[in-house]
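Following up on my earlier message about guanosine-5'-monophosphate. Here are the inputs again, as you asked, copied directly from the submission form:
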Amino acid sequence: MELLKQRILKEGRALSGQVLLVDSFLNHQVDVELMKACGEEFARRFADAGVTRIVTIESSGIAPAAMTALSMNLPMVIMKKSVSSILRDGIIQTEVFSFTKNAPYLLTLKTSFVHPGDRVLLIDDFLANGEAAFGGIHLLERAGAQIAGVGAVIAKAFQPGMEKLRAAGYRVEALAAVTRLAEGIIEF
Ligand code: 5GP
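Thanks, got it. Here's what our run produced:
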């Protein structure tokens, strides 16, 4: 997606060879116009996938997922990374290792928000090692859903997540696939 790539080149910053900072339009300040365009692009790419529900992981997946849900006229569900005391019943959880926090967390889904037979499009901001995506898939499949696809706004193609998901048979679409990061260098 050219608009997104241009924005990454203009405002993105490689914090290392592994981490891309895009907090001026995706992770902290959010450009909702750009997110709307991302949602429309996911909707176009997954138009034939029979999607019935959009699912994301808090918090940075929410903006692109909401715009995708709006474009596809579908419900959206947020998987939680921390569980409040009011969320006790009917939940399933799996441990996920956080790429950015370098620590595990319990990914949590309330099963009543995903129905057996649902075809879920899982949307997230970044795809790196695939830990978050595989954790989400695990919970969704346990809830009886099928995975229609995985959509990442940005995939770092030099990390193994995208390949691992495809090797496991999941359809993956990345709106921008970064092939190399280094100080002052971002390549697609
Ligand atoms: P994975 O689970 O695929 O290893 O990492 C994906 C998750 O880690 C995403 O939900 C995202 O929040 C975070 N993440 C991974 N790589 C980056 C990165 O380069 N920059 C930012 N801002 N977040 C990242």
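One observation from looking it over: The domain at 31-178 is CATH 3.40.50.2020 (Rossmann fold). Hope that helps, and feel free to reply on this thread.
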